[in-house]
Amino acid sequence: MKYLSLMFCRIAIGCLAALAVPATGQADEAHAPVRVSEVIFRAEFDGSRQKYVTLTPPDLNLSQPVSLLIALHGHGSDRWQFVRQSRGECRAARDVATANGMILVSPDYRAQTSWMGPAAEADMVQIIRTLKKQFQVQRVILCGGSMGGTAALTLTARHPSLIDAVVSLNGTANLVNYTRFQDAIAASFGGTKQQVPDEYRKRSAEFFPQQFTMPFASTSGGQDTVVPADSVLRLIARVRVHNRKVLSIHRPHGGHSTSYKDTKQALEFVIAASLQRSSGS
Q1: Nearest of 207, 203, 216 to residue 269 by alpha carbon
Q2: β-pair type (246-251, 216-221)
Q3: 35 lies in some domain
Q4: 235-262 in b/e burial notation, b at 16+ Cβ within 10 A?
Q5: Domain total for the chain?
Q6: Sign for the pseudo-dihedral over CA of 75, 77, 83, 86
Q7: What is the largest CA-CA distance in the chain?
C-alpha cells in the first residue's frame, strides 16, 4: 500500500511513478538477471493513465550516462511484447540492450491500435523527456516491429531531435497509400483518409526523408502482404542521398517477420553508427 499510495500521489501531480515490481527477467543471450519495472503515468495529452515497462541491466551504474533502447510493439499487442515474447525481434532487442548496458523501454503508446496517432505521439515525447530528466541519457535508439516499425519511422520524422538512431522492422513509411487496418488507423488519427488527409501525410515518413539524418536501419520482406516493403525501400533510397549511415536488410523471399539475426544486425549497426556519430568520426 505504501508504494501504491506514493504512486497515486505522483500521478495526481502529473509525474511518472514506478510500481514496485520485484520480478526479474533473464536476458536470452547473456543469461544475466535484469530488473523489470512497470511504470504508470498521467498523460499530458488527455489526462489518461498510460503505461510502459523498463528492463534495466544488472549492475548498471545509473549515476553514469546511459542509453535507451525504446521498442514499439505491433498491432494487437502492448507494452509486454518486447519484454516477454520469444519471437526473434523481441529476443534480439532484449539481448542487444543488455549486451550494450542499455535500458530497454517498452511503452504501450496507446496499446493495441496505436499507429502513432496524436495521442501516442504525445505520450512518446512525454516519456522520452521524462526519462531524460530521470537519467543521464546519452542517446535514444528507437525500434519497433510492424505497426511499431511504422510508428518508429513516424515518430522519428515528427521529432528527429529526440531520436539518435532508428530501426524499422517490417514497417511502412506511407500511411496515405497503406490499405490494411484502416478502422484502427482512423480511430487513432481522428478520421479516415478522406476526413483528415493531413494526418495521414504528416505521419508518413516517406514524405520527410530529410528528417533522417541519424543512423537508420530497416528490415523488410519481399513477400510481406501485411505491411508491403515498397515504401520503406523508397525511403531508404532517398535517405541515402544525404546520409551514409543507413542499412537495409531486405529479404526478397521474406514475409512479415524479422529473424533474430537480422534484428540483432540492424540494432548493432545503428548503435555502432550512433557511437561514431557522437565521437565525430
Answers
A1: 216
A2: parallel
A3: no
A4: bbebbeeebebbbbbebeebebbbbbeb
A5: 1
A6: negative
A7: 56
* CATH number for the domain that contains residue 123: 3.40.50.1820
Q: Which amino acid is at 56?
A: T
**Position of cell 488527409?**
197
Q: Are 243 and 72 in contact (CB under 8 A)?
A: no
**Residue 228, all three cell numbers:** 508491403
What the block records as the C-alpha cell of 96 is 542487444
> Is residue 46 a contact partner of residue 126, using CB atoms and an 8 Å limit?
no
What's the helix, strand, coil split of the chain in %, to 5?
A: 40, 20, 40
* Pick from 36, 45, 47: nearest CA to 13: 47
Q: Which amino acid is at 66?
A: V
Task: For residue 163, give its domain range.
Answer: 43-279
Rounded Cα gap, residues 280 and 266, in angstroms:
21
- pLDDT single digits (tens) 182-234: 999 999 999 999 999 999 999 999 999 999 999 999 999 999 999 999 999 99
